[in-house]
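Run log, item B.
One chain of 170 residues. Sequence copied directly from the ordering sheet:
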Amino acid sequence: MTRDFRDLAEEYAGRVYTFARYSLRHQEDAEDVTQEVLVRLWKNHDQIDPAATSTWVMRVARNLVIDLARRRQSRAAVFAQGADVEEMAAQVPADYAADAAAERSSLRARLEGALAELNEPYRSIVVMREIQGLAYEEIATAMNMPLGTIKVYLHRARRRLRELVQTENT
């Protein structure tokens, strides 16, 4: 049974946008990537194995992010740009007490800064696993890497994030 495109779009649009936003650091670029992934999903959703839809979507999203970075002729510069910390801090829920919100905002800013310092493919793997909650197998398929490599890279990325956040605290 083939799923309705509307259901697929609702399920994957947020995941794609989040991945693109963390990777590209620009809202407009993330929206463009999300739209292009959804267009491609629309054109191909009848040919995609339902069990592989998630990995197909994330692979297309990652490829589009890389393509966009290459079109800018400076992939390293795009991935090295810092997050818009003030904008992201403004998205912290307001229902926390002022102190808790300030502490959470500070931690979020440190994590965003540390994530921005990670090189590819470490950043993509962390975003897919820790932010989007993808399974290791889905990440391996989307990244076209062996499962063992994904696990090793994720371990290294987590360790590097810890080091970067701890360094900012001292």
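Observations after the first pass:
- Confidence is low (pLDDT under 50) at residues 74-97.
- The first helix runs from residue 5 to 24.
Flagged for discussion on Thursday.
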